[in-house]
């Protein structure tokens, strides 16, 4: 069983969520400017994509990193923004109208109520999105969120690598040439969504491969998530 607690609106813990922060910035920008211009294909125009890349402060995908591989930045080049755009429309927090993205009445209400915005946006993202569509292989790992979250709740009291966590669920990784596809799917469909949600932190030093990153809970995890395994969590080992 997974439950999401209602935090107070002034809780500093919500700052751990990149997705919530990006939603607040986008909705506030829309409210301040009246709208965001769209391309004919209904994507955000480059002027806003550039602004978002500069202000979202997205982990491992900052302004300099994005422009180091792109001369210009379209919405599809900045996957978190493309995802957020979809979520805001899907949840009716924004709408398209005559070539513009506009905030809805519901969007304005939740912008003024960040704890409710968190509980509307982020659980929907974690539990309802097909995360395999954002993976390299397009594959979905076997499992479900109730199991993943309850097991990770116990395992991640100490920092763990992608491989270590994968092997908790699926056993020792095969040495077959394409074995990376299984760990990649696990990362794309489980670890990355939890990082983007803000309950996990991916610690990756510069120059280190993504697959060698280590993961640990953020303070948002225990404060916001209520799980069946909470009483099994042991204090982290400190060295």
Low-confidence parts lasting 5 or more residues at pLDDT below 50?
A: none
Secondary structure tally: strands: 8
Mean pLDDT: 91
| Count of DSSP H/I helices | 10
Strand content: 5-15%
- N- and C-termini, Cα separation: 33 Å
| Main sheet properties | 3 strands, antiparallel
Sheet/helix structural class: mainly alpha
SSE string, helices as H and strands as E: EHEHHHEEHHHEHHEEHE
Q: What general outline do the C-alpha atoms trace?
A: globular
Integer-rounded radius of gyration: 18 Å
Helix content: 40-55%
Number of domains: 2
Description:
It is a single chain. It is built from ten helices and eight strands. The protein has helices spanning 18-33, 46-55, 63-69, 79-90, 105-111, 114-128, 145-155, 162-170, 180-197, 220-224, and strands at residues 2-4, 36-37, 94-97, 100-103, 160-161, 200-203, 214-217, 225-227. The protein is mostly helical and 239 residues long. The protein is globular, with a radius of gyration of 18 Å. The strands form three sheets. It has a three-stranded antiparallel β-sheet with strand order 2-4-3. Strands 5-7-6 form a three-stranded antiparallel β-sheet. The chain has a two-stranded antiparallel sheet with strand order 1-8. It starts with a strand and ends in a 12-residue tail after the last strand.
